[in-house]
Write a structure and sequence with these properties.
There is one protein chain. The chain has a domain of about 25 residues. It is α+β, with helices and mostly antiparallel strands and about 55 residues long. The protein has a two-stranded antiparallel ribbon. It has 1 helix and 2 strands. The chain is elongated and about 30 Å long. A hairpin with a 2-residue loop joins strand 1 and strand 2. The relative contact order is 0.21.
Length: about 55
């Protein structure tokens, strides 16, 4: 996975990936972007948020 562009807006961090039309840009705050990507991946692959009855 390759980061094409990242920026920080009012609502948080925006990460644009896998778009061949964009040129690769270095993230301004790589640590924040890395944490955001880890959180997104954890949500995608983590357990379902269901309560056991």
């Amino acid at each position: 996975m390759e980061i094409k562009q990242s920026c920080q807006g009012q609502g948080g961090v925006e990460v644009h990936m896998d778009n061949p039309k964009d040129e690769v840009k270095k993230a301004n705050n790589e640590e924040l972007v890395a944490k955001t990507i880890e959180r997104v991946e954890a949500r995608r692959h983590g357990p379902l948020n269901r309560k056991a009855i």
